[in-house]
Each structure stands twice: as structure tokens, then as C-alpha cells.
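Issue: ligand-bound run for 2'-deoxycytidine-5'-monophosphate - logging full I/O for the record.

Environment: standard queue, default settings, no custom constraints.

Inputs:
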Amino acid sequence: MGKITIAIDGFSSTGKSTIAKRLAASLGYIYVDTGAMYRAVTLFALNEGLIDPEGKVDAKTLTDKLASLELEFVPNEDSSKSDMYLNGKNVEKEIRSMHVSRNVSKVSAIKEVREMLVKIQQEMGKHKGIVMDGRDIGTVVFPKAELKLFMTASPEKRAARRYKELLEKGEEVTYAEVLKNVEERDRIDSTRSVSPLKKAKDAIEFDNSDMGLEEQFERVYDFAQRVIEKVEV
Ligand code: DC
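Outputs:
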């Protein structure tokens, strides 16, 4: 059976990873959450004291230390998902904190960070049969992906989803703070000079502001099946 590459890009908290994960499981494909990789590098920079209290990143020292970084996705049997490991330590929970969210856009705007992570991502997908989500998957990582989706939803809907998730995890945040972070990340992610977030010309735009999970999944699964059928002919 022919396998394809599926690139899912879009703004933060559009539910990309939920859909991507489910799609990968249904197709028997590998799932890669590239945001987790940028978050892990950000956590590393924070732990190394390379981001000052004003949020300024020491890009030069971080770049010098990149070679010593080990990133790995390790399957977690309890959650049937993969956890992000940074230098041998499970950092899955830490990388989702607001502290990391506040700093990740600046770290992901660093050219050397992107070059390193893009290389790893391309290697992961070289045999196809992969669903990868992020910001630049359809434009930079896999510009030849057979199926590209670009997910959008209003900032308010996205902030409400993220706020609910953070409260469930026990984080003390306000909705206003989460909305501000979502808008700020949109702005930095779409205006940075290296690989800004933008829809690939051949991507299908998918606004899920008013769509439940089940409906989204059915539609996306249908897109994938149609492309896979064509590839097999
Ligand atoms: O998908 P996420 O919200 O967990 O991603 C965290 C941050 O990482 C996001 O603000 C932008 C950045 N990112 C990126 O620049 N390129 C990617 N391919 C994935 C994420």
C-alpha cells in the first residue's frame, strides 16, 4: 500500500495535534509533534539561563550548545502517546507550561535552531507514512507532501481551548493571559524572517472554529483517503 506524507500547519491551539495524532493512528502512520521539539529547545535554553527575565535570548550561546542537545520521542504506554525527552529526561509536562509558551516563539525564530530541527524532521519522514504538525511543515520541511492542511480558528476560540487545558493541568492562569499569549505567538510566528507561519499555496485551509472533533476528524480522514487512493493508482 502506498504511503503518503501529511503536513498539518496552522496557528497555535487550533487542535492540530489532536487531529494529527488520531489521523496517524487510523492510518498506521508515525505522528510527529514538531512544536514539542521547539518547546524542548526552549526549556533547555531556560534551564541553561540563556533567556533573561525580560525574555531576551542569548542566541549565540544557545546555537553553540545545540550540538549537545538530544531530543527523542519515547512512546508512553499509559497515555498511548509519545513523550518528549530532552537529554534523557521526560519533559512532556514541563514543555507545555506557560513559562515555556511565553518564550518559545523567540527561540523558534532563531535560524540555527530551525535548521537543526528541520533536518531531524526531514530524516524522520524520509520513508513517508508520517503525519507531522507544526508551522512550516508544508512550506519548508516537506514542500512535496501529498496532503497539506492549514488549520485556523478565531483567537478567542483557541484561547478558550488552551485555557481549559491549562486549568485541567492545574496551572494558575487567567483567560486574558492565555488570549494575550495566543495573539502574541500568532504575531511572532507569522512575522519572523525565517520560515514564517503561512499557508502553503497547495494547502487546504480548514477553519474549525465551529466544528466538533468528530466532524473535523471525519473530514480530514476523508481528504487523506482520497489522496492515498490516487497515489495507489
Ligand atoms: O504547536 P505548538 O503551539 O506546541 O508550538 C510551539 C511553538 O513552536 C509555536 O509558538 C511556534 C513554534 N513552532 C515553529 O516555529 N515551527 C514548528 N514547525 C512548530 C512549532
